[in-house]
Fold Bile acid:sodium symporter family protein.
Amino acid sequence: MSAEDRSALVAVTIFPLVIVAGAVWAYMFPATASHLTPYISPGLGFIMFTMGLTLTVADFKRVAERPLAVLIGVAAQYIIMPAVAIGLVYLLNLPVGLAIGFILLGSAPGGTASNVVAYLAKADVALSVTLTTVSTLVAPIFTPLLVQWLAGTLTDIDGVAMAISILKTVVVPVVGGVVLRLLIPNVIDRILPVLPWISTLGISAVVAALVPGSAAAIASAVGVVFVAVILHNIAGLLIGYWAARATGSSPRVARTVCIEVGMQNSGLAATLGKTHFAATPEAALPGVIFSVWHNISGALLSLYFRRRAEAEADRKLAVQAAALADKVNV
């Protein structure tokens, strides 16, 4: 395993531990953690800004170079996860607050941690970055529309206000990061290795800031939410993989789509729940729990996919060696 691989493995293993530590601290000391509450939206904006710093012009050109793969991935993101979310709402007969939370979670764009998982899984990292970028940039359109459509019968939803929130906390910071990298690329390149760690600390702080307002909901509903989060994540991963394969994608691209679909921007979902559905604090809970779980499942999935990819490569080498031996013998 290369030094880069070891670094990525350490990162993807430690990420969930850092986030869990933040959540546990906030649950045990809610009065102290509540001081972070006013910084939820700025914190999410900072996380998205660090994502923007990692992007290059090539990541945007890839949309034109591989339009079908990008279309399949983004369409799967905004069809599969909302569909699974609404299915779980009815299957588990979730109360209104949790139903809204899962619809927000299912309607969110792809999570930034998916790029590290894609790297470890020997998936198509370049495509992963592009899918995350595109799904994030179109989120001000698709996320409010999906939430209004799927949760509009449960509560009043101001889709325009939600779109503006996503623009402010997601799109503008990402664009700002991209522009800054274009202006001072050499400086940004030097800090790129530490950006995932900075982003993880930011996610941990946002989760910790969300916990005090959801403490009562966590105490009363954490069991059913955890089960629903696991089902949501696993269903997204499985359906994402096989949907990509059904459209003719290669196993490597299918692994990429699988990871992108199954890993959500749960911080955005939780923040929207806190900001736009304050009367139902449970709405932020699915995003908070998902922030922890999808990093754990992502780490396990990356190891499984990595072993499969290495086994496939070994089989190809064996076939090529056998073919070469036959030619020599002839």
Notes: The mean pLDDT is 86. The chain has one domain: 3-212+220-329.
